[in-house]
Amino acid sequence: MPDFDPAVNLTAPFDQGVFLLHYNRGREGFQEGRYAEARRELESAQKLRPDDPDVLNLLGLVYFKTNAFPEAEVIYRRLAKENPNVFILHSNLGLILFKQGKLDEAEQHLLRAVELRPNYAKSHLYLGLLYRQRKKLGLAMDHLRFAGADKLLREVEIEMRPPSRQTLPDPSKATTEKILAVQAPRTTQPQPALTTQPGNVAAQAARKLQEAVDNTSLIEEKHIDLGRGRKVEGASRTFVLHENGFLEINFANSVYVKKGTVSSYSGNLKFTAESGLLGTTAQTLVKASGQGKIFIYEKGRKAFLLDLSEEFVYVEGSNLLALEETLTYRVEPIYDSAYQRKIDTLKIFGKGSLAISTDIEPLTLRVTRDLPLSISSTALVAWTGNLMSTVVDDKSLENIMIESAGDSGFKIRFEGDGVVVSEQ
């Protein structure tokens, strides 16, 4: 299956390893706030793969974090042009243009982001701030209300109130008023906050945007809902999962299936090993070529489907049951370098269907920045989102966390924002 750049398949394996080394270091530096280091590593990765969208997206965010807005703009203009229907690219580009004062173009891209994903709150937040700066306060309130930005909404409401008429005090009452002011009880109702002066609106908006961008979404935040039976409009309907556990695959060109799970098939099909997966836990995947129908059943395991619509998911290799040819994959293992071990995870992305199998009904676990997740490598099925994985070397956990019989797994810690699927 071709990657983003077909020429990469002609590159020596060592070059691929160097690329992943720079990319992973850059991603780790970004996650930990070491932006200068992340920029160096990602720029090195980009030299090896100039067109890799993951590198470009992450490098664009690093440029933004370091206030290199023109460089970030160049990258996101390219990504948005090449992926016109990816809402997060338009949202991020709109934010970058807003920071540079290019309000007309910023508005255009943010409106496009809202059109593509109407319920994405951050696009509405950015539009609310933009319209506030342009004194279109009615529109600003509409978008801020949708974004749930209550504090900003109250500030805009105050700005919309007509100014109260100022009157000169009566000199004969000055002494009395002063005494009353001194004697006023401390329990008086608090007055509304002062309205931001027009000259400070841009600075106020910039400060709010800077707070918001701390949670700016990566393109990888187009992670999927890992719930069972999810439907995506326009996604592939090649795979059909029957109630009795059989997976039916109808295809006209090729499909990838797990060796030893084909119950029956119709058509003149040819099965070949997938060389790109040799040496990994997904090496049992074979390519079926031709036109026909395949029925798959893996005894003793449960299968469920995922439909990707320009999204991504990481899957542990042995849990991958079938994969549509329209999807692209890349092997990105999680290494336990201290003991020379690894868990083979495949990053699968694009538009199409895949099937995953587990021993038991899987458990979906939410990961947030405040609540990282630790999990045994033997329990990991899949994950998606803006997550960073590290190996935990803590002997005290050996007698606490579940291990599979006869299998010496290791502990993995996920940090960031996303979802992890476990089967233990």
Q: Note the run of SSEs as H and E.
A: HHHHHHHHHHHEEEEEEEEEEEEEEEEE
Extended strand count: 17
Helix content: 25-40%
What would you report as the Rg, rounded to the nearest angstrom?
27 Å
**Can you identify the CATH superfamily of the largest domain?**
Mitochondrial biogenesis AIM24
Portion in strands: 25-35%
Q: Supply the CATH class of the largest domain.
A: Alpha Beta
Q: Uncertain regions: pLDDT < 50 for 5+ in a row?
A: 1-14, 173-225, 227-236
Q: Write the CATH architecture name of the largest domain.
A: 4-Layer Sandwich
Structural account:
- With 424 residues, this protein is an alpha+beta fold.
- Helices cover 34% and strands 26% of the residues.
- The longest helix is centred in the N-terminal third of the chain and has 19 residues, at 13-31.
- Mean pLDDT is 76; it is low at 1-14, 173-225 and 227-236.
What does this entry show, briefly?
The protein is of the alpha+beta class and 424 residues long. The chain has helices at 13-31, 35-48, 53-65, 69-82, 87-99, 103-116, 121-133, 137-147, 150-160, 174-183, 201-213; strands at 239-241, 247-251, 254-258, 262-266, 270-273, 285-289, 292-296, 302-316, 320-324, 327-331, 334-336, 341-343, 345-358, 363-367, 373-376, 380-392, 411-422. The chain is built from 11 helices and 17 strands.
